[in-house]
From TrEMBL, chains A, B:
Family matches, as NCBIfam families: PRK09194.1, proS_fam_II
Notes concerning its domains: Consists of three domains: the N-terminal catalytic domain, the editing domain and the C-terminal anticodon-binding domain.
GO-annotated cellular components: cytosol
Name of the protein: Proline--tRNA ligase
Domain Aminoacyl-transfer RNA synthetases class-II family profile positions: 34-490
Length: 593, 593
């Protein structure tokens, strides 16, 4: 039991200045968390109870799925992260430090290396597998822009699990098992999630899915079709036309260069074409007939820079997040004026694919060019002629230019077709709550994790990786379960079961309240008791609504008439019951809830 | 239930090369912990269970004492630690780092600043006090010499609590309450402790006590008398003689200088005196008649150096730890040859107190001199004459030289008198398990923590500080509860309640074992089940003894005769019971234990 007269709790009437999303505002105002530094929070007593409940649900489902809990240090030596290249690849997101002897250390952002080494240390045979391990632990990432309270922070709690199998079949089984466990976790947390295809990115695995919680404040874009397709926008693959055959291409008219002064943007190019270069068949030129050139500098882990040309249909914008995933682990930035000066092959406003490419033996200029998957062999385009005030009309992909490859750099739009043929796509915002993927052998190879297989031969182990953002789950639940008055926790993770409010003035009210509190506690319920003697009923009600305990019991003026109230925070329902019935009524609510 | 056939557990037959103490050897060999870096450990599944049990006992007793749990970040900004000077004072023990924006940060070694600021943030009136807060959290200290497994590490779990009171009387009450809570914690952990006076040191509080666990491998020296005195040697005060009056001093013979060539050590000096300067009353010269000079350089937080002369009786050695406490927060080092060259006032081998001192107006040389408390006014000594090959005999303290103050720099010895008159002292080794002290207003003043008092005036809050080393408690318990075969956990913190061993070959044995395991689990017991099919009984017994689960059940060959064994790890007793009785017998052991 926690008495509000002595609790380390102060509710605030106003939203903190830096808080923009509801969960952040309410968690601070209700005294659950407190900012200690940018993106770093203190868990106050009630907040810590919520955090621990979320952790416990995650723990129980991991245990039920046969995963074993352990705990790695937060402060780690550089060497294992050096072996996997992540010491450099993490860039500025990694908190690095040196100890008193000058040894390089880091604050762990994730623990793939440590899990891999621990298994290498303890396991030697296929008989030790399959194996699933997890921890619930503080992680550190030096986010460039911490935001939205607990949603993007620099110190956070994460559950990370890894599976270890002797072969791919085992990995698929482990993956499927964790997928089921995750469904149960989010079900128990009262958090709707969509299981969306995810890009495994630099991790290089095969299957990869995110558990995305649909919410306006999500940082991810969730793409779904009515036919059941669901993916993070980063993982959506473009539906491309069939490439034409050499014979078909041979029949296409030759390309021709046209003067297009001042047409250095797609919009001005289309206007110019419709005015000065009308098509014979009378169709108007559209932006989708043109190619948009995107010039980037890509940067590898050592900081080495390289120019890159990306061509996408002129009616689409680039999607930087998709591009980021497509280029990872290389980073990138758009060309600056300086870059244009340094690389005169890029004729600003009039760039086209002809002459670009890595294959210098074939006469290309040595600069990589990647194109949207829609730019299949035989498709016809208008693009810059790599010379000021000139474009080429009727450029045929595969005939007039050869790209070094395809890239998913263009935006996905409402109405685009799902890659699995399940109909048109729609886009919503989502927040990543969990991520499961088949990591494969990347870490096992880098750190030489092998075991003896059934034939007595050394075999590299294959791994799966499974994460849940525990801190973020608290925020998402707060975000989902609130109204204009405050929080409304689901029972499974509420900091306390019941909030008892003594709102009268006489000693009788307080004595009866003490009695009811004792009776509720005797039933094993956690009680928050507003026993503050000189606080008005109005303030107590407001605090109660702000704190969001699912059930509250109000003992006040109506006690004289033999009535106390049992309130349900989520529905707002108020039951009037006699003091004798109150415990039974509360138990009913708690157990049904 | 944890099956050993699939558990992430590997026991080792040999002690790890770097392990010298039993707890370290056994915790690693039994698969409870694993070294990740110097002084940094991973908690493997069984170890984590023990750690969590210790944490839970500490948590329950803190809660019962009315302390409220919260959780501060591990990664903190520099500013609060700058305000209290601890950013500098911590020296190399602090892990410092910079974030991507160049802001100075630290890994918290303790959280006084954060607790103080949180209370400042939420509390404004004496009505909010008294208040007690705690956390159980990972701490970081960059120890120069991590050692003995979990006993001295760089990342560890600590429970730190703070009390906040409006006045000293309140602080004394809070302190007393925590003292009782600590007694209960260690009682439940099965860990004998002596409550010893401690030096509050740089913390500057008034009451300060350590909970020292007597053990040979302790780093502290515990000093006790039969009359009930107990203190850390660092806090022992010397029983000094009464100083003589000026009249008494006036009657003492004048000092005289004697040639003492080659007598640059105490031993050679005493030999020389007995040979060349025999006393008139025939008593032999003793080392205790002489003063030993100790020359140090002290260093403040900014690195500024200053020479210091310390004089102690010639029959005693300096105690560096007592000296450290006495000089804190200044650090120190003994004079090097260079220092002797730089400070020619120190005539190596022939240093005496005459002429030393800060009071240059009175003719002193400006170098601080501190003396042992036994060097009271009127005591008579032989000391160096500050000139090669000369000593002064009959030097009278307070007449021939004036010290700048007293210092507790000399060793305490078995047989010395307790300062409270409770008899002779005896010294043993102890390990600090907890520390409670009245911190006072140091942090509240530095960070401006004030509340309105009963008269509506701002008043600085007074604080108490209460720590328990949770990680270290695990090691101490392992150290205390083991034998040559392995660990023998007390039931309160054993990783599991029962270890069931199937040691036969037939399927019958394994089936019966499964049955018994299920029945024990149905009773709510945590079971470790050795179900490994092809492991010999001998190996299973050895593992069981090494792991140290308090009760084990052996189902083996004698099952054919209707007999299974219930073994008690601590006593070694073996009960033969029928399979039907085994659950009842185990429950009896668990509940009595």
């Amino acid at each position: 039991m926690l008495r509000m007269s002595t609790a380390f709790l102060r509710t605030l009437r106003d939203n903190p200045a830096d808080a923009e999303v509801a969960s952040h505002q309410l968690l601070v105002r209700a005294g659950y968390i407190r900012r200690a530094a940018p993106g770093i929070y203190t868990w106050l007593p009630l907040g810590l109870k919520v955090l621990r409940k979320v952790e416990q649900i995650v723990r129980e489902e991991m245990d039920a799925a046969g995963s074993q809990e352990l705990l790695f240090p937060g402060l780690l030596p550089r060497e294992p992260y050096e072996a996997t290249d992540r010491w450099a690849e993490y860039g500025d997101n990694l908190f690095r430090l040196q100890d008193r002897k000058g040894a390089d250390m880091l604050l762990a952002p994730t623990h793939e290396e440590m899990f891999t080494l621990a298994v290498k240390d303890l396991c030697s045979s296929y008989k030790d597998l399959p194996l699933s391990l997890y921890q619930i632990q503080h992680k550190y990432r030096d986010e460039l822009r911490p935001r939205a309270g607990l949603l993007r922070v620099r110190e956070f709690v994460m559950k990370d699990a890894y599976s270890f199998d002797i072969d791919d079949e085992g990995l698929h089984r482990s993956y499927a098992q964790m997928r089921e466990a995750y469904k149960r976790v989010f079900e128990r947390l009262g958090l709707e999630v969509v299981i969306a295809k995810a890009d495994a990115g630099a991790m290089g695995g095969s299957q990869s899915e995110e558990f995305l919680h649909p919410t306006e404040i999500g940082e991810d874009t969730l793409v779904m079709s009515d036919g059941g397709y669901a993916a993070n926008v980063e993982a959506v693959t473009t539906v491309a036309p069939e490439p034409l055959t050499a014979e078909q291409i041979a029949e296409l008219p030759a390309a021709r260069t046209a003067r297009t002064p001042g047409a250095s943007t797609i919009a001005s190019l289309v206007d110019h074409l419709n005015e000065a270069q009308p098509r014979e068949d009378g169709r108007a030129w559209e932006k989708s007939d043109t190619l948009k050139a995107l010039a980037y500098i890509t940067i590898d882990a050592d900081g080495a820079e390289e120019p890159l040309l990306v061509m996408i249909p002129g009616d689409r914008e680039a999607d930087e997040k998709r591009l980021e995933v497509a280029l990872a682990p290389r980073e990138f930035r758009p060309f600056t004026e300086d870059d244009f000066t340094r690389h005169p092959q890029f004729a600003k406003g009039y760039i086209g694919p002809v002459g670009f490419g890595l294959d210098t033996d074939a006469g290309a200029n040595g600069i990589r060019v990647l194109v949207d998957p829609r730019v299949q062999a035989g498709t016809v385009w208008v693009a810059g002629a790599n010379s000021a005030d000139e474009h080429t009309i009727g450029l045929v992909a595969g005939r007039d230019f050869q790209a070094d490859g395809f890239i998913e750099a263009a935006e996905v739009r409402d109405g685009d077709q799902a890659p699995d043929g399940s109909g048109p796509l729609r886009l919503t915002r989502g927040m990543e709550m969990g991520h499961i993927f088949e990591l494969g052998r990347k870490y096992a190879e880098a750190l030489d994790l092998q075991v003896l297989d059934q034939n007595g031969k050394q075999k590299t182990v294959t791994m799966g990786s499974y994460g849940i953002g525990v801190t973020r789950a608290v925020a998402a639940i707060a975000e989902k379960h609130h109204d204009e008055k405050g929080l409304a926790w689901p029972r499974s993770i509420a900091p306390m079961d019941v909030h008892v409010l003594a709102t009268g003035k006489g000693t009788e009210v307080f004595e009866k309240a003490e009695e009811i509190v004792a009776a509720l506690e005797a039933e094993g319920l956690d009680v928050l008791f507003d026993d503050r003697p000189k606080v008005s009923p109005g303030v107590k009600f407001k605090d109660s609504e702000l704190l969001g305990i699912p059930t509250s019991v109000v003992i006040g003026r109506s006690l004289a008439d033999g009535v106390v109230e049992v309130r349900d925070r989520a529905s707002g329902s108020i039951d009037e019951v006699s003091p004798d019935e109150v415990v039974a009524r509360v138990l009913q609510q708690v157990r049904e809830g």
